[in-house]
Design goal:
With about 150 residues, the chain is α+β, with helices and mostly antiparallel strands. It has helices spanning about 10-15, 15-20, 30-50, 60-65, 90-100, and strands at about 55, 80-85, 105-115, 115-120, 135-140, 140-145. The radius of gyration is 14 Å and the shape is globular.
Length: about 150
Amino acid sequence: MQLTSHFSLDELTHSNKAYELGIDNYPSPDEVINLGRLANKLEEVRAILNKPIHITSGYRCLELNRAIGSSDTSQHVKGCAADFQVDGLTPSEIINFILSYKIEFDQIIEEHLGGKSWVHISVPDRGKKARKQALTIDEHGTRLWK
């Protein structure tokens, strides 16, 4: 199912870990609605970067989320968050673009863990106002971005 011109439901729910563990990572209808909202946000980001976005993690059912050691309150569980990378751009460069174009988001996080780095972006829960939090998460913990 295509959610937007560049993002599909399969892309935003794919998980090698879920496959490896035999976990059904298919979202509920409400989560699919959230993934559609998220895909629209990713389209905005793709447009300003003028480059493809590679999703590394999107929707994660609670069982999968726990299996990878993430918090039960993660926005990934609701279908409201995605982690991504863009060839030729660092997470810091991506976030600078997003902030300079004033794209609205709930959270944007520059993450550096386990020798890898990526950007986490989320949309607020339906009916909620965006928090507009820009953060960094790395081996030193969580803090405000730059």
